[in-house]
Amino acid sequence: MTETESIAYDVVVIGGGPVGENVADRTRAAGLTTAVVESELLGGECSYWACMPSKALLRPVIAQADARRLPGLTRAVQGPLDTPAVLARRDDFTSHWKDDGQVAWLEGTGADLYRGAGRLAGPRTVTVTGPDGTVTNLTARHAVAVSTGTRALLPDLPGLAEVKPWTSREATSAETAPGRLIVVGGGVVATEMATAWQALGSRVTLLVRGKGLLNRMEPFAGELVAEAMAEAGVDIRTGTSVESVTRENGTVVAVTSAGDRIEADEILFATGRVPHTDDLGLETVGLEPGSWLDVDDSLRVNGTDWLYAVGDVNHRALLTHQGKYQARIAGAAIAARAAGSPLLDEPWGAHAATADHDAVPQVVFTDPEAAAVGLSLAEAEQAGHRVRAVDVEFSSVAGAGLYGDGYKGRARMVVDLEDEILRGVTFVGPGVGELIHSATVAVAVRVPVSRLWHAVPSYPTLSEVWLRLLEAYRDN
Predict the structure, then answer these.
(1) Can you say which residues are annotated as belonging to the binding site for NAD(+)?
(2) What is the pLDDT of residues 403-427, one digit of tens each?
(3) Binding site members for FAD
(4) Which domains does the chain have, with CATH numbers?
(5) CB neighbours of 358 closer than 8 A, spacing ≥ 6?
(6) Residue ranges for the chain with pLDDT beneath 50
(7) Binding residues
Protein backbone atom coordinates (compact mmCIF):
# COMPACT_ATOMS: atom_id res chain seq x y z
CA MET A 1 0.00 0.00 0.00
CA THR A 2 1.39 3.36 -1.07
CA GLU A 3 0.25 6.56 0.64
CA THR A 4 0.39 10.01 -0.92
CA GLU A 5 0.49 13.41 0.71
CA SER A 6 -2.74 15.22 1.45
CA ILE A 7 -4.48 17.22 -1.26
CA ALA A 8 -6.77 20.07 -0.18
CA TYR A 9 -10.08 21.02 -1.79
CA ASP A 10 -12.90 23.27 -0.76
CA VAL A 11 -15.38 20.38 -1.06
CA VAL A 12 -14.97 16.60 -1.17
CA VAL A 13 -17.94 14.51 -2.37
CA ILE A 14 -18.02 10.80 -1.53
CA GLY A 15 -20.22 9.03 -4.08
CA GLY A 16 -20.43 9.89 -7.76
CA GLY A 17 -24.00 8.99 -8.58
CA PRO A 18 -26.45 11.61 -9.88
CA VAL A 19 -26.71 13.14 -6.41
CA GLY A 20 -22.97 13.49 -5.88
CA GLU A 21 -22.55 14.76 -9.43
CA ASN A 22 -25.11 17.49 -8.80
CA VAL A 23 -23.47 18.54 -5.53
CA ALA A 24 -20.18 18.85 -7.42
CA ASP A 25 -21.81 20.73 -10.28
CA ARG A 26 -23.31 23.32 -7.91
CA THR A 27 -20.18 23.81 -5.81
CA ARG A 28 -18.03 24.14 -8.92
CA ALA A 29 -20.50 26.66 -10.36
CA ALA A 30 -19.95 28.68 -7.17
CA GLY A 31 -16.20 28.65 -7.76
CA LEU A 32 -15.29 26.08 -5.09
CA THR A 33 -12.63 23.47 -5.83
CA THR A 34 -14.27 20.05 -5.66
CA ALA A 35 -13.18 16.41 -5.63
CA VAL A 36 -15.53 13.50 -6.33
CA VAL A 37 -14.72 10.01 -5.03
CA GLU A 38 -16.38 7.00 -6.69
CA SER A 39 -15.68 3.31 -6.10
CA GLU A 40 -17.71 1.95 -9.01
CA LEU A 41 -19.10 3.59 -12.15
CA LEU A 42 -19.50 7.36 -12.22
CA GLY A 43 -23.22 7.92 -12.58
CA GLY A 44 -24.11 5.51 -9.81
CA GLU A 45 -27.02 3.17 -9.20
CA CYS A 46 -29.56 5.21 -11.16
CA SER A 47 -27.61 5.19 -14.41
CA TYR A 48 -26.60 1.54 -14.49
CA TRP A 49 -28.77 -0.58 -12.19
CA ALA A 50 -31.94 1.34 -11.33
CA CYS A 51 -33.83 4.20 -12.99
CA MET A 52 -32.42 4.10 -16.51
CA PRO A 53 -32.24 0.34 -17.17
CA SER A 54 -35.53 -0.41 -15.41
CA LYS A 55 -37.43 2.21 -17.39
CA ALA A 56 -35.74 1.08 -20.60
CA LEU A 57 -37.08 -2.41 -19.89
CA LEU A 58 -40.55 -1.12 -19.06
CA ARG A 59 -41.06 1.38 -21.88
CA PRO A 60 -41.70 -1.27 -24.62
CA VAL A 61 -43.97 -3.13 -22.21
CA ILE A 62 -46.10 -0.04 -21.61
CA ALA A 63 -46.07 1.00 -25.28
CA GLN A 64 -47.33 -2.42 -26.33
CA ALA A 65 -50.04 -2.37 -23.66
CA ASP A 66 -51.18 1.07 -24.83
CA ALA A 67 -51.21 -0.03 -28.47
CA ARG A 68 -53.32 -3.07 -27.66
CA ARG A 69 -56.04 -0.75 -26.35
CA LEU A 70 -56.41 0.91 -29.76
CA PRO A 71 -58.45 -0.65 -32.59
CA GLY A 72 -56.32 -0.51 -35.70
CA LEU A 73 -53.19 -1.31 -33.75
CA THR A 74 -54.38 -4.31 -31.78
CA ARG A 75 -53.62 -6.92 -34.44
CA ALA A 76 -50.27 -5.34 -35.23
CA VAL A 77 -48.96 -5.84 -31.69
CA GLN A 78 -50.43 -9.21 -30.72
CA GLY A 79 -47.15 -11.07 -30.83
CA PRO A 80 -44.65 -11.23 -27.98
CA LEU A 81 -42.05 -8.56 -27.41
CA ASP A 82 -38.67 -9.01 -29.06
CA THR A 83 -36.86 -9.61 -25.78
CA PRO A 84 -33.29 -9.51 -27.17
CA ALA A 85 -34.06 -6.16 -28.83
CA VAL A 86 -35.49 -4.78 -25.60
CA LEU A 87 -32.41 -5.89 -23.69
CA ALA A 88 -30.11 -4.43 -26.34
CA ARG A 89 -31.87 -1.06 -26.05
CA ARG A 90 -31.53 -1.31 -22.27
CA ASP A 91 -27.80 -1.86 -22.74
CA ASP A 92 -27.59 1.29 -24.85
CA PHE A 93 -29.23 3.32 -22.10
CA THR A 94 -26.65 2.06 -19.59
CA SER A 95 -23.84 2.89 -22.04
CA HIS A 96 -23.03 -0.83 -21.82
CA TRP A 97 -21.97 -0.25 -18.20
CA LYS A 98 -19.19 2.12 -19.18
CA ASP A 99 -18.93 5.59 -17.67
CA ASP A 100 -16.79 7.43 -20.25
CA GLY A 101 -19.57 9.93 -20.97
CA GLN A 102 -20.14 10.66 -17.29
CA VAL A 103 -16.43 11.15 -16.72
CA ALA A 104 -16.23 13.61 -19.62
CA TRP A 105 -19.18 15.55 -18.19
CA LEU A 106 -17.64 15.74 -14.72
CA GLU A 107 -14.30 16.84 -16.10
CA GLY A 108 -16.17 19.56 -17.99
CA THR A 109 -17.35 21.01 -14.69
CA GLY A 110 -13.77 21.32 -13.46
CA ALA A 111 -14.20 18.80 -10.63
CA ASP A 112 -11.50 16.17 -10.04
CA LEU A 113 -12.41 12.47 -10.00
CA TYR A 114 -10.74 9.97 -7.67
CA ARG A 115 -11.40 6.29 -8.35
CA GLY A 116 -11.53 4.13 -5.26
CA ALA A 117 -13.17 3.55 -1.89
CA GLY A 118 -13.61 6.76 0.07
CA ARG A 119 -13.66 6.73 3.89
CA LEU A 120 -13.82 9.46 6.47
CA ALA A 121 -10.64 9.63 8.54
CA GLY A 122 -11.65 12.32 10.96
CA PRO A 123 -13.22 15.77 10.52
CA ARG A 124 -12.90 17.18 6.99
CA THR A 125 -10.61 14.32 5.96
CA VAL A 126 -11.22 11.56 3.40
CA THR A 127 -8.90 8.71 2.44
CA VAL A 128 -9.28 7.15 -1.00
CA THR A 129 -7.95 3.63 -1.53
CA GLY A 130 -7.51 3.16 -5.26
CA PRO A 131 -7.83 -0.09 -7.23
CA ASP A 132 -4.05 -0.58 -7.03
CA GLY A 133 -4.00 -0.05 -3.26
CA THR A 134 -2.65 3.49 -3.43
CA VAL A 135 -4.08 5.68 -0.66
CA THR A 136 -4.76 9.35 -1.33
CA ASN A 137 -5.61 11.72 1.50
CA LEU A 138 -8.07 14.50 0.72
CA THR A 139 -8.92 17.35 3.04
CA ALA A 140 -11.91 19.67 2.75
CA ARG A 141 -11.69 23.33 3.70
CA HIS A 142 -15.47 23.76 3.84
CA ALA A 143 -17.46 20.55 3.44
CA VAL A 144 -17.52 16.81 2.89
CA ALA A 145 -20.72 15.59 1.24
CA VAL A 146 -21.69 11.94 1.60
CA SER A 147 -23.79 10.73 -1.34
CA THR A 148 -23.21 6.99 -1.16
CA GLY A 149 -26.86 5.98 -1.45
CA THR A 150 -28.23 2.60 -0.45
CA ARG A 151 -27.88 -1.09 -1.21
CA ALA A 152 -30.42 -3.87 -1.30
CA LEU A 153 -31.55 -5.39 1.98
CA LEU A 154 -31.65 -9.19 1.89
CA PRO A 155 -33.54 -11.24 4.48
CA ASP A 156 -31.72 -13.36 7.02
CA LEU A 157 -32.44 -16.76 5.50
CA PRO A 158 -30.06 -19.70 5.99
CA GLY A 159 -28.10 -20.54 2.86
CA LEU A 160 -29.35 -17.52 0.92
CA ALA A 161 -25.87 -16.57 -0.31
CA GLU A 162 -25.48 -19.98 -1.97
CA VAL A 163 -28.75 -19.44 -3.85
CA LYS A 164 -27.30 -16.28 -5.45
CA PRO A 165 -30.59 -14.37 -5.41
CA TRP A 166 -31.31 -11.41 -7.60
CA THR A 167 -31.45 -7.92 -6.16
CA SER A 168 -32.52 -4.88 -8.13
CA ARG A 169 -29.09 -4.89 -9.78
CA GLU A 170 -29.42 -8.34 -11.30
CA ALA A 171 -33.07 -7.70 -12.19
CA THR A 172 -32.19 -4.66 -14.29
CA SER A 173 -29.02 -6.05 -15.88
CA ALA A 174 -29.95 -9.68 -16.65
CA GLU A 175 -28.86 -10.86 -20.10
CA THR A 176 -31.83 -13.20 -20.64
CA ALA A 177 -35.36 -13.59 -19.33
CA PRO A 178 -35.64 -16.44 -16.82
CA GLY A 179 -38.34 -18.94 -17.67
CA ARG A 180 -39.73 -18.72 -14.13
CA LEU A 181 -39.12 -15.85 -11.73
CA ILE A 182 -40.13 -15.43 -8.09
CA VAL A 183 -40.34 -11.81 -6.96
CA VAL A 184 -40.47 -11.18 -3.21
CA GLY A 185 -41.89 -7.81 -2.19
CA GLY A 186 -44.79 -5.52 -2.92
CA GLY A 187 -43.17 -2.12 -3.45
CA VAL A 188 -41.96 -0.20 -6.46
CA VAL A 189 -39.04 -2.44 -7.47
CA ALA A 190 -41.09 -5.60 -7.04
CA THR A 191 -44.08 -4.40 -9.05
CA GLU A 192 -42.01 -2.81 -11.83
CA MET A 193 -39.73 -5.82 -12.28
CA ALA A 194 -42.65 -8.25 -12.14
CA THR A 195 -44.35 -6.18 -14.85
CA ALA A 196 -41.25 -6.07 -17.03
CA TRP A 197 -40.16 -9.69 -16.85
CA GLN A 198 -43.68 -11.10 -17.20
CA ALA A 199 -44.01 -9.19 -20.48
CA LEU A 200 -40.51 -10.23 -21.57
CA GLY A 201 -41.34 -13.92 -21.31
CA SER A 202 -40.94 -14.97 -17.67
CA ARG A 203 -43.64 -16.70 -15.67
CA VAL A 204 -43.71 -14.52 -12.57
CA THR A 205 -44.88 -15.36 -9.05
CA LEU A 206 -45.11 -12.32 -6.78
CA LEU A 207 -44.94 -13.01 -3.04
CA VAL A 208 -46.15 -10.13 -0.86
CA ARG A 209 -45.91 -10.21 2.90
CA GLY A 210 -48.60 -7.56 3.38
CA LYS A 211 -52.19 -7.29 2.23
CA GLY A 212 -51.49 -5.58 -1.07
CA LEU A 213 -49.13 -3.70 -3.35
CA LEU A 214 -47.65 -0.20 -3.11
CA ASN A 215 -48.67 0.27 0.51
CA ARG A 216 -47.12 3.75 0.69
CA MET A 217 -49.67 5.07 -1.79
CA GLU A 218 -53.43 5.37 -1.58
CA PRO A 219 -54.96 1.86 -1.27
CA PHE A 220 -56.66 2.03 -4.65
CA ALA A 221 -53.30 2.44 -6.38
CA GLY A 222 -52.08 -0.98 -5.34
CA GLU A 223 -55.48 -2.51 -6.00
CA LEU A 224 -55.67 -1.31 -9.61
CA VAL A 225 -52.06 -2.28 -10.31
CA ALA A 226 -52.57 -5.74 -8.79
CA GLU A 227 -55.73 -6.29 -10.82
CA ALA A 228 -53.93 -5.47 -14.08
CA MET A 229 -50.85 -7.52 -13.19
CA ALA A 230 -53.01 -10.55 -12.47
CA GLU A 231 -54.77 -10.11 -15.82
CA ALA A 232 -51.34 -10.03 -17.48
CA GLY A 233 -50.50 -13.38 -15.93
CA VAL A 234 -48.58 -12.57 -12.75
CA ASP A 235 -49.41 -14.98 -9.91
CA ILE A 236 -49.83 -12.64 -6.92
CA ARG A 237 -49.91 -14.15 -3.44
CA THR A 238 -50.49 -11.70 -0.60
CA GLY A 239 -50.01 -12.38 3.09
CA THR A 240 -47.13 -14.64 2.11
CA SER A 241 -43.49 -14.65 3.16
CA VAL A 242 -40.55 -16.87 2.25
CA GLU A 243 -39.55 -19.26 5.03
CA SER A 244 -36.66 -20.95 3.21
CA VAL A 245 -34.98 -20.90 -0.18
CA THR A 246 -32.51 -23.33 -1.76
CA ARG A 247 -31.11 -24.01 -5.19
CA GLU A 248 -31.38 -27.66 -6.22
CA ASN A 249 -29.73 -28.72 -9.49
CA GLY A 250 -29.93 -25.13 -10.73
CA THR A 251 -33.58 -24.66 -9.74
CA VAL A 252 -34.60 -22.24 -7.00
CA VAL A 253 -37.00 -23.77 -4.49
CA ALA A 254 -38.83 -21.38 -2.17
CA VAL A 255 -41.02 -22.59 0.66
CA THR A 256 -43.61 -20.03 1.80
CA SER A 257 -45.32 -19.34 5.09
CA ALA A 258 -48.40 -21.01 3.60
CA GLY A 259 -46.40 -24.20 3.11
CA ASP A 260 -46.27 -23.86 -0.68
CA ARG A 261 -43.20 -25.07 -2.55
CA ILE A 262 -42.48 -22.82 -5.54
CA GLU A 263 -39.84 -23.61 -8.14
CA ALA A 264 -38.19 -21.03 -10.36
CA ASP A 265 -35.06 -20.27 -12.32
CA GLU A 266 -34.34 -17.09 -10.36
CA ILE A 267 -35.62 -15.32 -7.26
CA LEU A 268 -35.60 -11.55 -6.80
CA PHE A 269 -35.73 -10.07 -3.31
CA ALA A 270 -37.09 -6.51 -3.43
CA THR A 271 -37.54 -6.19 0.31
CA GLY A 272 -36.04 -2.84 1.16
CA ARG A 273 -32.84 -0.79 1.20
CA VAL A 274 -30.17 -0.03 3.78
CA PRO A 275 -27.73 2.92 3.83
CA HIS A 276 -24.38 2.40 2.17
CA THR A 277 -22.50 3.72 5.21
CA ASP A 278 -21.17 0.58 6.89
CA ASP A 279 -17.57 1.08 5.68
CA LEU A 280 -17.53 4.86 5.47
CA GLY A 281 -15.48 5.64 8.56
CA LEU A 282 -18.39 7.25 10.39
CA GLU A 283 -16.91 6.13 13.69
CA THR A 284 -13.99 8.51 13.14
CA VAL A 285 -16.36 11.47 13.47
CA GLY A 286 -18.54 10.10 16.28
CA LEU A 287 -21.31 8.58 14.14
CA GLU A 288 -22.63 5.03 14.00
CA PRO A 289 -21.35 2.89 11.10
CA GLY A 290 -24.12 1.59 8.88
CA SER A 291 -26.61 4.22 10.06
CA TRP A 292 -28.82 6.62 8.16
CA LEU A 293 -27.44 10.14 8.46
CA ASP A 294 -29.77 12.63 10.12
CA VAL A 295 -29.69 16.07 8.50
CA ASP A 296 -31.29 19.50 8.74
CA ASP A 297 -33.07 21.10 5.79
CA SER A 298 -29.78 22.37 4.35
CA LEU A 299 -28.68 18.70 4.28
CA ARG A 300 -25.96 19.25 6.87
CA VAL A 301 -25.58 16.35 9.30
CA ASN A 302 -26.93 17.37 12.67
CA GLY A 303 -24.21 18.02 15.25
CA THR A 304 -21.56 18.96 12.65
CA ASP A 305 -20.61 22.14 10.84
CA TRP A 306 -18.87 20.53 7.83
CA LEU A 307 -20.50 17.16 7.01
CA TYR A 308 -23.44 16.88 4.59
CA ALA A 309 -25.50 13.80 3.69
CA VAL A 310 -27.35 14.12 0.41
CA GLY A 311 -29.73 11.73 -1.33
CA ASP A 312 -30.93 8.30 -0.20
CA VAL A 313 -28.30 8.09 2.55
CA ASN A 314 -30.28 10.54 4.72
CA HIS A 315 -33.52 8.52 4.38
CA ARG A 316 -35.69 11.56 3.66
CA ALA A 317 -36.91 10.48 0.22
CA LEU A 318 -35.33 7.51 -1.57
CA LEU A 319 -35.83 8.84 -5.09
CA THR A 320 -33.26 10.02 -7.63
CA HIS A 321 -35.11 13.21 -8.53
CA GLN A 322 -35.51 14.12 -4.88
CA GLY A 323 -31.83 13.41 -4.24
CA LYS A 324 -30.87 15.69 -7.11
CA TYR A 325 -33.14 18.36 -5.63
CA GLN A 326 -31.36 17.96 -2.31
CA ALA A 327 -28.02 18.21 -4.13
CA ARG A 328 -28.97 21.57 -5.59
CA ILE A 329 -29.99 22.78 -2.13
CA ALA A 330 -26.86 21.40 -0.46
CA GLY A 331 -24.54 22.81 -3.10
CA ALA A 332 -26.07 26.25 -2.69
CA ALA A 333 -25.90 26.02 1.12
CA ILE A 334 -22.24 24.92 1.07
CA ALA A 335 -21.40 27.81 -1.26
CA ALA A 336 -23.27 30.34 0.89
CA ARG A 337 -21.57 29.21 4.08
CA ALA A 338 -18.17 29.19 2.38
CA ALA A 339 -18.70 32.77 1.21
CA GLY A 340 -20.06 33.93 4.56
CA SER A 341 -23.36 34.85 2.92
CA PRO A 342 -26.71 34.74 4.72
CA LEU A 343 -28.25 31.27 4.84
CA LEU A 344 -31.77 31.28 3.39
CA ASP A 345 -32.97 28.22 5.30
CA GLU A 346 -36.52 29.28 6.11
CA PRO A 347 -39.23 27.01 4.63
CA TRP A 348 -39.10 27.14 0.83
CA GLY A 349 -35.88 29.20 1.00
CA ALA A 350 -32.98 28.66 -1.40
CA HIS A 351 -31.10 26.63 1.20
CA ALA A 352 -33.95 24.49 2.59
CA ALA A 353 -35.13 21.17 1.15
CA THR A 354 -38.69 21.86 2.24
CA ALA A 355 -40.25 19.74 -0.49
CA ASP A 356 -38.89 16.63 1.25
CA HIS A 357 -41.54 17.05 3.92
CA ASP A 358 -44.79 17.33 1.98
CA ALA A 359 -44.29 17.68 -1.78
CA VAL A 360 -42.40 14.55 -2.88
CA PRO A 361 -43.56 13.17 -6.27
CA GLN A 362 -43.18 9.58 -7.43
CA VAL A 363 -44.17 7.56 -10.48
CA VAL A 364 -44.45 3.76 -10.55
CA PHE A 365 -44.00 2.61 -14.15
CA THR A 366 -46.34 -0.36 -14.09
CA ASP A 367 -49.37 -0.84 -16.34
CA PRO A 368 -51.35 1.09 -15.25
CA GLU A 369 -48.95 3.72 -13.96
CA ALA A 370 -49.36 5.00 -10.42
CA ALA A 371 -48.25 8.53 -9.60
CA ALA A 372 -48.54 10.49 -6.38
CA VAL A 373 -47.27 13.63 -4.71
CA GLY A 374 -47.61 14.91 -1.16
CA LEU A 375 -49.64 13.19 1.55
CA SER A 376 -52.10 10.37 1.20
CA LEU A 377 -55.45 10.72 2.95
CA ALA A 378 -54.26 8.57 5.87
CA GLU A 379 -50.98 10.50 6.18
CA ALA A 380 -52.76 13.86 6.12
CA GLU A 381 -55.17 12.75 8.84
CA GLN A 382 -52.31 11.34 10.95
CA ALA A 383 -50.52 14.69 10.61
CA GLY A 384 -53.54 16.40 12.16
CA HIS A 385 -54.87 18.15 9.05
CA ARG A 386 -58.62 18.50 8.59
CA VAL A 387 -58.94 17.14 5.09
CA ARG A 388 -61.35 15.72 2.56
CA ALA A 389 -60.57 13.23 -0.18
CA VAL A 390 -62.11 13.82 -3.59
CA ASP A 391 -62.14 10.87 -6.00
CA VAL A 392 -63.06 10.61 -9.66
CA GLU A 393 -62.81 7.83 -12.20
CA PHE A 394 -60.98 8.53 -15.44
CA SER A 395 -64.00 7.17 -17.29
CA SER A 396 -65.45 10.68 -16.86
CA VAL A 397 -62.54 12.21 -18.82
CA ALA A 398 -62.85 12.41 -22.59
CA GLY A 399 -59.09 12.22 -23.07
CA ALA A 400 -58.97 8.87 -21.30
CA GLY A 401 -61.32 7.27 -23.78
CA LEU A 402 -59.23 8.61 -26.64
CA TYR A 403 -56.05 7.35 -24.99
CA GLY A 404 -57.30 3.78 -25.25
CA ASP A 405 -60.45 1.67 -25.25
CA GLY A 406 -61.42 0.41 -21.82
CA TYR A 407 -59.18 2.95 -20.10
CA LYS A 408 -59.37 2.30 -16.37
CA GLY A 409 -58.02 4.62 -13.70
CA ARG A 410 -58.77 6.81 -10.73
CA ALA A 411 -57.66 10.15 -9.34
CA ARG A 412 -57.76 11.56 -5.83
CA MET A 413 -56.94 14.95 -4.40
CA VAL A 414 -56.68 15.48 -0.65
CA VAL A 415 -57.95 18.96 0.17
CA ASP A 416 -57.03 20.80 3.36
CA LEU A 417 -60.36 22.24 4.49
CA GLU A 418 -58.77 24.95 6.62
CA ASP A 419 -56.65 26.59 3.89
CA GLU A 420 -58.37 25.04 0.83
CA ILE A 421 -55.06 23.89 -0.63
CA LEU A 422 -54.04 20.44 -1.80
CA ARG A 423 -52.12 18.23 0.62
CA GLY A 424 -51.75 15.38 -1.85
CA VAL A 425 -52.76 14.07 -5.26
CA THR A 426 -52.75 10.52 -6.65
CA PHE A 427 -53.37 9.34 -10.20
CA VAL A 428 -53.62 5.73 -11.39
CA GLY A 429 -54.02 4.88 -15.06
CA PRO A 430 -52.13 4.56 -18.33
CA GLY A 431 -49.98 7.62 -19.04
CA VAL A 432 -50.60 9.39 -15.74
CA GLY A 433 -46.89 9.77 -15.02
CA GLU A 434 -46.93 12.82 -17.27
CA LEU A 435 -49.72 14.35 -15.16
CA ILE A 436 -47.91 14.32 -11.87
CA HIS A 437 -45.84 17.47 -12.32
CA SER A 438 -48.97 19.60 -12.53
CA ALA A 439 -50.00 18.12 -9.19
CA THR A 440 -46.51 18.68 -7.79
CA VAL A 441 -46.70 22.37 -8.68
CA ALA A 442 -50.14 22.65 -7.06
CA VAL A 443 -48.97 20.97 -3.84
CA ALA A 444 -45.56 22.65 -3.57
CA VAL A 445 -46.82 26.14 -4.38
CA ARG A 446 -49.95 25.60 -2.25
CA VAL A 447 -52.25 26.84 -4.97
CA PRO A 448 -55.72 27.60 -3.53
CA VAL A 449 -58.54 25.50 -4.93
CA SER A 450 -60.25 28.71 -5.98
CA ARG A 451 -57.28 29.58 -8.20
CA LEU A 452 -57.10 26.07 -9.69
CA TRP A 453 -60.44 26.76 -11.37
CA HIS A 454 -58.58 29.23 -13.58
CA ALA A 455 -55.97 26.68 -14.69
CA VAL A 456 -57.95 25.45 -17.69
CA PRO A 457 -57.05 21.93 -18.91
CA SER A 458 -56.79 21.43 -22.66
CA TYR A 459 -59.53 19.33 -24.24
CA PRO A 460 -59.46 16.41 -24.88
CA THR A 461 -56.50 15.36 -22.74
CA LEU A 462 -55.98 13.33 -19.60
CA SER A 463 -55.38 16.65 -17.82
CA GLU A 464 -59.11 17.27 -17.88
CA VAL A 465 -59.22 15.05 -14.81
CA TRP A 466 -58.35 18.22 -12.89
CA LEU A 467 -61.68 19.77 -13.92
CA ARG A 468 -63.56 16.63 -12.88
CA LEU A 469 -61.81 16.69 -9.46
CA LEU A 470 -62.70 20.36 -8.89
CA GLU A 471 -66.32 19.74 -9.93
CA ALA A 472 -66.55 16.80 -7.52
CA TYR A 473 -65.15 18.95 -4.72
CA ARG A 474 -67.64 21.75 -5.48
CA ASP A 475 -70.70 19.54 -5.88
CA ASN A 476 -70.34 17.19 -2.93
Answers:
(1) 185-192, 272
(2) 999 999 999 999 999 999 999 999 9
(3) 55, 118, 312
(4) 3-43+99-151+275-355 (3.50.50.60), 153-273 (3.50.50.60), 368-475 (3.30.390.30)
(5) 374, 375, 423, 443
(6) none
(7) 55, 118, 185-192, 272, 312
